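User: Some background: our group keeps a shared notebook of sequences we're curious about, and every so often someone picks one and asks for a predicted structure to add to the entry. Today it's my turn. The entry only has the sequence so far, pasted here. Could you supply the structure so I can complete it?
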Amino acid sequence: MPKSRLFYYLSALRPYQWVKNGFVLLPLVFGEKLVDPAALKHVLVAFLAFCAAASGVYMINDIADLEADKLHPVKKLRPLAQGHIAPAQALGLALILLITALAAGFALNFSLGICLAAYIAGNFLYSHFLKHLVIVDVMAIGLFFLLRVVAGAVVIPVVISDWLLICSGVLALFLGFNKRRHELLTIGQKAGGHRRVLEKYSIYFIDQMVAVLTASTVIFYTLYTVDAGTVANFGTNGLLFTVPFVYYGIFRYLYLVHKRRLGGDPARIILKDGMLQINLLLWLAAAIGVIYFAK
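Assistant: Of course. Here's the predicted structure to add to the notebook entry:
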């Protein structure tokens, strides 16, 4: 049965990618504001604003990468690459989403508006320049994740732990390099035609980066749980008991990347793998239990 035009527009928005905006919620949990109705409302607005901004950016990127996406075995199935949506129509919808996101952000909190503006501007800079610079391309992706965490903190407002920012950034780098690895494996010799920077990467090099980031992620998170400031803030060292969930999550992700070749899109992996979802919920439940009930 033919798909409707609405289906193609919704597909172009890539709503499954909104799971990445879950980073906006971290300050709500770790800032002990989870039971504050005003904080919940503000973080929800920030989350929705980032969803609108992300979808707008994705659509503009799809317009810019239209020819390159046609060379990719998966991206060639996107609505713009297949011709189901005209570039002019996509651009119009993207601008509406971006303007709406910025308006909502500045209306709620000036700092949130700045975070959203930085996210949008950073993505444009990434699309036209940074994505062609080896290593810098992945570091830019990590910065976008950090902006989400900062945005979640400024709207509450709370002071977010430096350790938590470091953990979020390193985890984002871990996901980014695994994505580059999958692109190399999937596209093979045509990798440079789809994304020029892939010519500068190799599987061996990326595996070295992933090894460093794997260790860094679990070590930094462990240090965060036992840090004197963390223990004093939460009144307990019980957060240490959430470390096994972080280990399992990292190991499960690596298993999916290396054994099941599913490392192309972190959002899709999380949404498709039940074990990762269960582990994430258990980690969140354990963290909430320690922070709010173990004092």
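Suggested note for the entry: The chain has two domains: 15-159, 161-295. The radius of gyration is 19 Å.
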